[in-house]
Design brief:
With 256 residues, this protein is α/β, with parallel strands linked by helices. The chain has helices spanning 38-45, 61-72, 82-90, 93-102, 114-130, 148-154, 168-181, 191-196, 198-214, 226-232, 244-247, and strands spanning 2-7, 16-22, 27-34, 50-54, 143-145, 185-186. The longest helix has 17 residues, at 114-130. The chain is globular and about 55 Å long.
């Protein structure tokens, strides 16, 4: 099995992509690339069994309805808890699930700068679909939405404070901690790049998260959530330890 992880930014710069090959008892990082364009992502996806995109795959349904209503006239303000109403405009159902499950508050695709990456992602999803890939925003097809910070949290690793200037030491420590927690993961020639670039590191984590989704070791929307998730997107949170990725086949999955 090959999994592809993409840490998607608004532009090619700061976008990273990692490919992991899964063997019977280990996982080998075969490639890590920085400053990646859309065409490169589509091409690499051809050989991947599962692609983890670190970017919202859609917008909150109430937000889309609000913008549509506002364009043609005036919006209807919900009665009752105004703060809760505004939060539902800003955050998707899957964002709220992540908040409840991990305590992490995802960036709002409706009200934060991550929307710029989501604009790009919308075009990328169209390109992937045109190339023949099954693009299901619930993660049922080849593409799945991942969230490296939440995945690291679920795996018991540091998930805050390793990005940005002045965080090189903490970032390097996190790479060391990941290697210790997953001794079966072979970074090989790409270890130095992962230590130097948190974009590269996040791409590797996205590829690990994609594996969890591929073998049934990640959350999926339930029957009540599926319709909304199909429009807004769904973050596949790992449901077990890192060792699950090589030690078990998962529900309906396979080992390699």
């Amino acid at each position: 099995m090959l999994t592809l992880g993409v840490d998607l930014a608004a532009a090619d710069e700061r976008t990273a992509m990692a490919t992991i090959e899964w063997l019977s008892d280990r996982a080998v990082v075969r490639d890590v690339v920085l400053d990646v364009g859309d065409a490169q992502i589509v091409k690499a996806s051809q050989d991947a069994d599962k692609v983890g995109l670190d970017c919202p795959l859609g917008w909150p349904e109430p937000f889309v309805a609000l913008v549509t209503a506002h364009r043609s006239g005036h919006v209807t303000i919900a009665d009752g808890d105004a703060a809760r109403w505004r939060r539902r405009l800003a955050y998707r159902l899957t964002d709220e699930v992540v908040r409840e499950t991990t305590g992490i508050i995802p960036l709002s695709v409706a009200a934060d700068r991550i929307a710029h990456a989501a604009f790009r992602c919308a075009g990328l999803l169209a390109m992937l679909a045109a190339a023949g890939h099954d693009v299901d925003r619930r993660g049922d097809g080849k593409i799945v939405e991942v969230y490296p910070a939440a995945a690291l949290c679920r795996w018991g690793l540091t998930y805050r404070g390793y990005k940005g200037r002045g965080q090189k030491a903490q970032h390097a420590d996190l790479v060391t901690a990941l290697c210790a927690a997953a001794p079966w993961l072979e970074l090989g020639a790409f270890e130095a790049l992962c230590r130097r670039s948190h974009d590269a590191f996040d791409a590797v984590v996205a590829a690990l998260n994609a594996r969890a989704a591929a073998i049934g070791r990640a959350t999926r929307p339930d029957d009540e959530q599926r319709q909304v998730a199909g429009v807004e997107g769904w973050i596949a949170l790992p449901t077990g330890p890192l060792s699950d990725l090589v030690d078990g086949t998962g529900a309906g999955g396979r080992r390699s």
